[in-house]
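Readers of this paper often ask what the protein records in our data store actually look like. Such a record has a labelled line for the sequence and another for the backbone structure tokens. Nothing more is needed to write down the fold, since each code stands for a local backbone conformation. The remainder of this section carries one protein's record, kept here as part of the documentation.
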Amino acid sequence: MSSDECCERFERPGKHARMSLEVIVVGGGFTGMASAAALAQQGATVRVFEAAQTTAPQFRGELIHPRGVRGLESLGLKVPLFERGGVAVNGFAVSQHEGAAPVLLPYEDAQGPGLGIDHPAMVLTMRAQLAARPNVSITTGARIADFVRSGPRIVGVRTADGQEHLADLVVVADGRSSKLRPLLGLEPEVKLLSYTVAFGVDGELPHGRMGHVFLGAPGPILAYPYAEGRIRFCVDVALGAPKGREALVALICEQYARVVPSPLREAMVKSLRETPFEACANHSISTAACAAPGVALVGDAGGCGHPLTASGMTNAMNDVLTLAELVGARGPDDAALTEYQRRRYDFVRMRELFTEALYEVFRGHDDGSKALQSGVFRYWSSSARSRRASMNILSGEEVRVSRFVAEYSRVFRGSAVDVIKRSAWQPRAGGARLKSLAKTSLGRFSAAAGRTARKVVDRYRLGLHPLP
């Protein structure tokens, strides 16, 4: 089947044009449901296949930046999610060390609020909303074992029981551990970064409806509201940390809890000791291609980073809205999927770079990253413009790599000046700190150059991935 043949039932744009396409979405989580909503809104008939019979209770993404919330609103899903118990999140409060006053980084009023919501509640709500739409069907307990091919093109999927289901477009939304990605011959760059220990706590955060980041422990702690009177704690634990529940509880209580202010600290320790928690791995997954003839990867299936920046679901919303816009304009031909791939990487390369840099600085594992961490806080304290620029990068409102480089350069200059001043009193130690700072920063600038080069390749040279 050729690219043109796959679109023969697509009515080209005109006054009364509507899509007449069959789309299969693999994965019934947040990204799969958002994909179904976006493509159905364009007029496609969408079938969603989810391997699990029920919504998994495991911890998954729960925090969405305003850009992602605006996307949900455009799909008619924002109001139902807030009605189901979601709470508005208005920015972040970041504390550098125990007892330090936090720097407040609010979202801009014009951007609207972010959203915090219990993950199973979110997915169930989205499924209920989509199941009620006439051109969407959802099948659970249906594991997709393979793709159906016609020549060089994907034309459907095959379930584990051997049944074939044909479609004009297959959307892969089965998460970071995608089982279908390898079947396309896509082998991403995967790096295990750390582990997250996640648990819920009753109470209120010091600065209300803001995400809170507490630094000064062996790893950063992210805490955010995800329901009325409920806080999710995500504690970053190093790869070499002791294993087992008792050992992890002891580690967090002894080395992490001190950076959380009272009375939240006591509530955190009580919950950790008395209720179940989840430990999950944090990976950096970077793909070189996210589309092949007849198929597109969206959300974490196309790549992801450390969850500290809470960018996963916002990135996923960008993916699904971009794909739906392009397919809605001309059908799922090769040109539309190629342009989706280019636009996705235009957005994602910047997010990858920022996530890596922020995690490195917040972890503060060496003299260079500690100096940069102090520089970041001085920078944020210097002006509202600095705080606004950083938040626009964090929340995905600003996507240019050049803006990241500009902001990072300002932080580096300030950090270098501070280290040089301190070196007057401790020349040997100051020289070592300056060398470490230069090494860390040059690594970031090198990564920025690499991401910029990849964006150029993605924009002008990257084509659809050929099927193996």
Observations:
- The chain has three domains: 5-87+110-189+285-348, 191-282, 353-460.
- Confidence is low (pLDDT under 50) at residues 11-17, 415-421, 427-449.
